[in-house]
Write a structure and sequence with these properties.
The protein is mainly β. Helix content is about 15%, strand content about 45%.
């Protein structure tokens, strides 16, 4: 405490003049006011909120997975990052304030800011008007990414067995480094990798590497799909079977194993029910089909449509086939604007 302030508060004899004492008091009051205002501004600027981007985020009483669990938050729940008052946290941990006022700790990798949530929202909207092309599961633990490719931001490592719906197929190029100049070995080359856009049960949409997932075609068609590269399938119609319920008829898209033909599938087969088993009344090879495979119903007529690439990168050819009999292509095929990227 300054001598001037002590003089006022405790009656200590003053050696300074009255003018100097008042000036000192005003200066002290001004500094105190500035300190309060600075503290007020700092408190009024909290950190941006965080959002859960994994299927389940565990919140702990302390920054330790062996401490008491406070809660498990689902995808999309918002929390507020808390200041720690200078206290250092273990690497990868964050202090959070829950919406009900509780405070806890969690792994930072389970959260992202609003910019990531915007991307996730856009991905979810991108599949709203696309019929589910296939259903499957992760045959090994695999990463869910925001974009196709190994550089795509990782959201979560999905455990083996995670189920999903598939909507699109995307290809990326990865540089495979070969031998350096002057040494034996293959030169540097680009390797094509395939990714699927998938939607999980909790609504998240992202990309998974094709080698880590497996599709689950309808069990009724296992006689046909077994040991084949099944890419997509759609229900054409349901055939009533009286007391036995109904049986679905399908169109299925296949791709030749080990062949790169610059598209998503190269064969279409239709499976109809004859009352006792499935038969294949229509099949077409040599196509260069692009997902999505669609089925459109107009009265008693059913149409199967898909796109095929053209020499123009911003357009595709849309092909349309009639089902049931007569099974024929309706032409001429139309040119549609669509950017397809690498396939």
């Amino acid at each position: 405490m300054s001598q001037a302030i002590r003089a006022v508060c405790f009656g200590i004899p003053r050696r300074r003049s009255a003018a100097r004492t008042v000036a000192s008091l005003l200066a002290a009051a001004l500094l105190a006011s500035c300190s309060l205002e600075l503290g007020k501004d700092k408190a009024a600027t909290p950190k941006a909120p965080l959002f859960v981007v994994v299927s389940k985020a565990d919140i702990y009483e302390a920054p330790d997975r062996f401490s008491r669990s406070l809660d498990s938050l689902r995808y999309g729940v918002k929390v507020q990052e808390e200041e720690t008052g200078g206290k250092a946290l273990p690497e990868g941990w964050v202090a959070v304030l829950l919406e009900d006022g509780r405070r806890g700790y969690a792994k930072r990798s389970m959260f992202a800011d609003a910019t990531v949530m915007v991307v996730l929202d856009e991905l979810a909207k991108s599949v709203q008007d696309i019929p589910v092309q296939a259903m499957g599961h992760a045959k090994v633990a695999t990463f869910l990414r925001l974009a196709p490719g190994r550089d795509g931001q990782t959201l979560e490592k999905l455990p083996r067995g995670t189920t999903f719906e598939m909507f699109e197929r995307a290809a990326t190029l990865r540089t495979a480094k070969g031998a350096v100049d002057g040494e034996d070995g293959p030169p540097e080359s680009a390797v094509k990798e395939i990714w699927y856009k998938v939607r999980l049960e909790d609504g998240r949409v992202g990309y998974c590497y094709t080698s880590n997932v497996e599709f689950d075609p309808p069990v009724a068609l296992s006689e046909y799909t077994r040991q084949r590269r099944t890419v997509a399938w759609q229900v054409l119609r349901s055939v009533p079977m009286g007391d036995l319920g109904s049986v679905n008829e399908y169109v299925v898209a296949y791709a030749s194993i080990g062949e790169d033909f610059g598209a998503d599938f190269n064969r279409i087969e239709v499976y109809t029910w004859d009352g006792g088993r499935y038969q294949t009344p229509f099949a077409k090879s040599g196509v260069r089909g692009l997902l999505p495979l669609r089925v459109e119903t107009q009265g008693a007529d059913i149409f199967i449509t898909w796109d095929e690439p053209t020499t123009t990168p911003s357009s595709v050819t849309r092909r349309r086939f009639h089902f049931p009999f007569p099974y024929k292509e309706l032409g001429p095929s139309s040119r549609v604007e669509r950017v397809i990227g690498l396939h």
